[in-house]
UniProtKB/TrEMBL annotation:
It is found in: Secreted. Residues 304-405, 410-510 form the SRCR domain. Coiled coil: none annotated. It holds the Pfam family SRCR. Residues 1-34 form the signal peptide. Residues 522-630 form the ZP domain. GO terms for biological process: zymogen activation. The keyword Chaperone does not apply. Its main location: secreted. Residues 267-296 have a biased composition (Polar residues). This is Deleted in malignant brain tumors 1 protein-like. Residues 266-296 are annotated as: Disordered.
């Protein structure tokens, strides 16, 4: 750098506030920008150093403090991680992964668009039955089952090669009969049946239901992650399996590796494991659609069914699908509110009763849920509060049941919410569509009522929400509008029609978002707690679990009933607390920042809050605290 440029650089630096100048110097001379400006050194982590600087001014009287992690530790100074102990992500909580420079960092979510429409959270634009739409990759994927992809499979050539594979959509990996995933640790060359063994650079996600991105790399002769090839997307599904949106590698010969974990799901091999030459690509995987009807072993996580209900699919013993197996629900605390959520999830109309004591016979196997406590606004039974999956004190003599108003379930599909889409009816073990001959608002009104979706707004025809597949169950439907089920309306008879799927009927109902509930603030003697109503925040397009206080690393939360609670110690500087006093009170102020779903650089919603504590120590803190939450 010549003298003139150096002088210009120094002049620009001198215009930076003292605290920021300190962080700039730290970045220049240590290669780290892990310091955080604080108002008190008490905010610093035990393994951090509190550095003091003076902001430039006439008297240099403005003090700036910052917390910086000590050597051997990384973080923002408020939280510091031991690089030796934490490099395997063991220090990181769910939804976070290890970064060598920053410690535990939050997994960024990925959001897709489809036909000019932004897909709902954690879905992707996927081709389903030849039509691209927003769909859950956990339900629409292809299977990869190649024994040679194992990290234990080595060969000196010829090599398997993914370089020329036309990867399309999402993939779930198996090794034999076991679940498999792409390893996130250093895999040596010549493993996985290839020369360049591909793995992901960051750990596989530990938080269910979020699509995140991961860098793909392979090992050179000396470096664990030398060849960085592509970025892929990955999602941990509620059945405890991973799906990957793979990209073709930029180097060859190379192949994605696989390692086993978890339980045996019993999925057959789909490819020939015999050695192939280096120009041969894996056999295209067989498409798998796990949105099967109740009773099918390919049910999705959280799906429910009613069994032993006679000729009705809308009454019977409640069973829920978890970890690859169906299980029952205990009747402790079971009531009509819980049963209504079941009827809504199945599209079976209003609830009539919530039988207990195994009225529909005793089930077998697991009891997945106990002490279910729904608020009534949930769209799925799995969203209700309960003791925890598999945690119960019941026997099958206490299996819960449900009787809904309708005889056959109905659903609306191929849209971004459950209250609009193509009409499908469940009959004879299969979902099928409804022909649009004579289709009108009265018919749509019955569907909306059956799904608990409010009033009918429109009754589109001509497959406006895409063409279905399989049987066309109903034609010439004529409802009065007050029937409990669409199958109770006049029609030609199940399966009798003169239509094609280009005439599939649809319905648009009034989509009713959960009612708004304001945040709650609790001022305790030792902590300040702010609680957000999960459904209300979600309905506003915000992620209730994305919050952080004034210090960005302060994002710990706990769940209680239908709220997520963020907390901060009642101390000056803790998580960015601002302390001010007057003649009678000490006031701690902070703010909670909540972010929209899957928007990395979006402006957060700010919720400032404060608690006033009396300076008179003889007073009871719990009696005289004054909270403020605008």
């Amino acid at each position: 750098m010549d003298d003139s440029k150096f002088v210009s650089w120094m002049q620009s630096i001198m215009r930076v506030p003292g605290g920021l100048f300190l962080l700039v110097l730290l970045h220049i001379f240590t290669g780290s920008s892990s310091g955080t400006l604080v108002t008190s050194c008490a905010s610093c982590h035990d393994e951090a150093t509190c550095l003091e600087s003076r902001e430039r001014g006439d008297t240099f009287s403005h003090q700036a403090l910052s917390c910086v992690c000590k050597e051997g530790f990384v973080g923002d100074g408020l939280t510091c991680y031991d690089t030796k102990l934490c490099s395997d992500s063991s220090c990181c909580r769910q939804g976070y992964h290890w970064s060598p420079d920053r410690g535990c960092v939050k997994d960024p979510s990925v959001k897709a668009s489809c036909g000019g429409v932004v897909c709902p959270s954690d879905t992707d634009c996927i081709s389903v039955n030849g039509t691209e739409r927003c769909a859950d990759p956990c339900e629409h994927y292809s299977i990869i089952n190649d024994e040679w992809r194992s990290v234990n499979y080595t060969r000196s050539g010829p090599y398997y090669n993914d370089f020329g594979v036309n990867w399309q959509g999402w993939y779930r990996m198996f090794l034999g009969q076991s679940n498999a995933r792409i390893p996130d640790w250093c895999v040596s060359r010549f493993s996985c049946g290839t020369l360049n063994s591909l793995r992901i650079e960051q750990p596989n996600p530990t938080e269910y239901g979020r699509i995140v991105s991961r860098n793909v790399c392979s090992m050179s002769s000396s470096n664990c992650c030398d060849y960085r090839t592509r970025t892929i997307n990955v999602k941990l599904c509620y059945g405890n399996y991973y799906v990957y949106k793979l990209q073709h590698p930029s180097v060859g010969p190379s192949a994605y590796c696989a390692e086993t974990y978890g339980a045996n799901p019993g999925v057959p091999s789909t490819t020939d494991p015999r050695p192939q030459n280096s120009t041969t690509t894996p056999t295209p995987a067989t498409p798998h659609n796990s949105t099967a009807v109740p009773g099918n072993n390919t049910a999705v996580e959280g799906e429910i069914r009613l069994v032993n209900g006679g000729n009705s699919s809308c009454s019977g013993r409640v069973e829920i699908f978890h970890n690859g197996q169906w299980g029952t629900v205990c009747d402790d605390s079971w009531d009509l509110i819980d049963a209504q959520v079941v009827c809504r999830q199945l599209g079976c109309g209003r609830v009539l009763s919530a039988p207990v004591m195994a009225q529909f016979g005793q089930g077998t196997g697991h009891i997945w849920m106990d002490n279910v406590r729904c608020t009534g606004s949930e769209s799925k039974l799995s969203e209700c509060q309960h003791n925890g999956v598999g945690n119960h004190n019941c026997g099958h003599s206490e299996d819960a049941g449900v009787v809904c108003e309708a005889l056959s379930p109905v659903r609306l599909v191929n849209s971004d919410n459950r209250c609009s889409g193509r009409v499908e009816v469940f009959h004879n073990g299969q979902w099928g569509t409804v022909c649009d001959d004579s289709w009108g608002l009265n018919d749509a009104q019955v569907v909306c009522r059956q799904l608990d979706c409010g009033e009918a707004r429109a009754a589109p025809t001509q497959a406006q929400f895409g063409q279905g597949s399989g049987p066309i169950w109903l034609d010439d439907v004529q409802c009065f509008g007050n029937e409990p089920s669409i199958t109770d309306c006049t029609h030609r008879g199940f399966g009798v029609h003169n239509c094609g799927h280009h005439e599939d009927a649809s319905t648009v109902c009034e989509f009713q978002s959960p009612s708004h509930e304001a945040p709650q603030l609790i001022c305790r003697s030792d902590k300040l707690l702010i609680g957000l109503h999960i459904n209300s925040v979600t309905a506003a397009g915000l992620n209730p679990f994305s919050g952080n206080l004034a210090s960005r690393n302060c994002s710990w939360f706990s769940l209680q009933d239908d709220r997520v609670w963020y907390e901060v110690d009642a101390q000056a500087g803790a998580c960015g607390n601002d302390l001010r006093t007057n003649s009678t009170h000490a006031v701690y102020s902070n703010a909670l920042f909540i972010y929209p779903y899957n928007q990395s650089f979006a402006v957060p919603v700010t919720l400032p809050f404060s608690c006033a504590y009396p300076l008179n120590t003889d007073s009871s803190l719990y009696m005289t605290i004054r909270p403020f939450l605008p």
